[in-house]
């Protein structure tokens, strides 16, 4: 008899914060915070299970950037055939932590791909063509790709693996072949045929999925590439990474970018979020932000720095009288789950209400907008290279630089938490 419910949670899911799995059967879809029915989720959908520290009959899951709940017993056992996804990361194609020229990268990946037995023949054939299309240019046509894709019968899991993982391997070829960086920088930065690629097994610098070395000797330079799916949103960039990039001295920068923002409210908020816990950082940051201007203090009354310090020190045993006005006026607090039982807000509920303040005030170029500080952080340091495949299997590429984010009205602070969940640090959504 299959293990289900609480017993399945203890046996299979209570060993980490986030666990990759799939749905083994259809399930109703529920709201992440209110458990209201929002439709349904199909069998085979790839999700990440969010461990909330105890068994929940309606399990919290994330599908790409969307949080919602499904019936716990609809989740496949981690590591089972139903939950497994073929590994398409560069490292699964024999790529090591060394520098590769384009030919070496192509031959290493192609040889490993040919030897892999965990890929179905038609899928392997499509990946081989996709690799050759980027590495050998005109020898492979888009029509050949379309035909191979149609014949491969690629499922949703494999498709996501191609976009999110195999796209990293294809990235250096696309950067060179399509002149992505050359065109985006108006020729100021050129990637020549002599360039070399580097894939860290564990990124030792912020936002790097792979790097491209150009030049030689004292003129050798590493271009940091953040590989993303070509979609509406990406993962957030954590505050410590932004601060690190601002401090980094290169490309004529002697630390002036850090000095530029040293006394700004944006830097103060990022520092507080970086230096404090997931639960406490947003409360302290929001209190500091709200009290930085009289107009903000009037907009969010009662969120004092003393109140924030008290809940940080005491946790759920904090003094609610210090938050009396804030609790009476804040909409997120009014809508919290514990309001139904007339219980004082929990530590996590206060955190979430503060996260919503930070997020709202950083959107649409509000007083906490992050577009300039983020753009300056990545300027001449990080290139966002985005990839997807169309419904017919044809690759599509795009690139974003600091100038793109500088013009954007929505580079903002984003939370992945909720009224009952505090497992992700707030970060900047580019």
How many helices? The count is 17
Radius of gyration: 24 Å
What is the general shape?
A: globular
Chain-averaged pLDDT: 90
Structural class by SSE content: alpha+beta
How would you describe the overall organization of this protein?
This protein is an alpha+beta fold. It folds into three domains: 5-74; 90-240 and 378-407, no CATH class; 264-370 and 411-429, no CATH class. The protein has 17 helices and 14 strands. A six-stranded mixed beta sheet has the order 7-8-9-10-11-12. α3 (121-135) packs parallel to α5 and α7 (239-247) crosses α16. The longest helix is centred in the middle third of the chain and has 22 residues, at 156-177. It is globular, with a radius of gyration of 24 Å. The mean pLDDT is 90.
In short:
Helices cover 39% and strands 17% of the residues. It is an alpha+beta fold.
Annotation keywords:
3 domains, 6-stranded mixed β-sheet, alpha+beta, 430 residues
SSE arrangement:
Layout: H1 5-13, E1 18-22, E2 27-30, E3 37-41, E4 46-50, E5 58-63, E6 66-71, E7 99-101, H2 102-115, H3 121-135, H4 142-152, H5 156-177, H6 180-184, E8 196-198, E9 210-214, E10 221-229, H7 239-247, H8 256-261, H9 265-275, H10 280-290, H11 294-299, H12 305-314, H13 324-329, H14 331-334, H15 347-362, H16 371-378, E11 382-389, E12 395-400, H17 402-407, E13 412-414, E14 427-429
Parallel strand pairs: 10-11
Antiparallel strand pairs: 1-4, 2-3, 4-5, 5-6, 7-8, 8-9, 9-10, 11-12, 13-14
Helix pairs in contact: 2-3, 3-4, 3-5, 7-9, 7-16, 9-10, 10-12, 10-15
């Amino acid at each position: 008899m299959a293990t289900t419910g609480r017993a399945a949670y203890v046996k299979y899911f209570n060993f980490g914060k986030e666990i990759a799995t799939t749905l083994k059967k259809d399930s109703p879809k529920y709201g992440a915070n209110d458990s209201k029915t929002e439709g349904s989720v199909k069998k085979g959908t790839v999700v990440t299970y969010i461990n909330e520290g105890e068994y929940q009959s309606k399990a919290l899951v994330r599908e790409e950037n969307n949080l919602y709940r499904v019936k716990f017993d609809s989740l496949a056992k981690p590591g089972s055939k139903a939950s497994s996804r073929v590994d398409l990361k560069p490292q699964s194609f024999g790529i090591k932590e060394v520098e590769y020229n384009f030919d070496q990268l192509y031959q290493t990946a192609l040889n490993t791909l040919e030897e892999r037995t965990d890929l179905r023949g038609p899928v392997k054939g499509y990946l081989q063509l996709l690799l050759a299309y980027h590495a050998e240019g005109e020898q492979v046509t888009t029509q050949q790709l379309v035909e191979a894709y149609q014949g491969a019968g690629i499922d949703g899991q494999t498709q996501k693996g191609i976009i999110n993982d195999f796209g990293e391997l294809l990235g250096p070829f696309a950067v060179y072949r399509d002149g992505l960086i050359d065109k985006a920088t108006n020729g100021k930065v050129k990637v020549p045929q002599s360039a070399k690629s580097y894939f860290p097994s564990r990124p030792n610098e912020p936002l790097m999925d792979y790097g491209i070395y150009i030049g030689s000797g004292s003129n050798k330079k590493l271009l940091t590439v953040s590989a993303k799916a070509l979609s509406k949103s990406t993962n957030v960039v954590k505050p410590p990474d932004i601060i690190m990039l601002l401090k980094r001295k290169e490309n004529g920068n002697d630390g002036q970018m850090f000095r530029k923002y040293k006394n700004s409210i944006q830097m103060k908020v990022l520092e507080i979020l970086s230096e404090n816990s997931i639960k406490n950082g947003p409360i302290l940051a929001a209190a500091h932000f709200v009290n930085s201007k009289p107009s903000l203090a009037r907009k969010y009354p009662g969120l004092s720095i003393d109140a924030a310090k008290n809940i940080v020190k005491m946790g759920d045993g904090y003094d609610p009288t210090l938050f009396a006005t804030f609790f009476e006026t804040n909409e997120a607090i009014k809508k919290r789950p514990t309001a139904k039982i007339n219980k004082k807000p929990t530590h996590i509920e206060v955190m979430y209400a503060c996260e919503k303040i930070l997020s709202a005030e950083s959107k649409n170029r509000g007083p906490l907008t992050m577009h300039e500080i983020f753009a300056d952080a990545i300027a001449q340091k990080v290139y966002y290279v985005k990839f997807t495949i169309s419904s017919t299997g044809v690759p599509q590429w795009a690139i974003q630089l600091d100038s793109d984010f500088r013009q954007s009205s929505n580079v903002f602070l984003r939370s992945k938490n909720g009224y009952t969940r505090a497992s992700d640090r707030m970060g900047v959504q580019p």
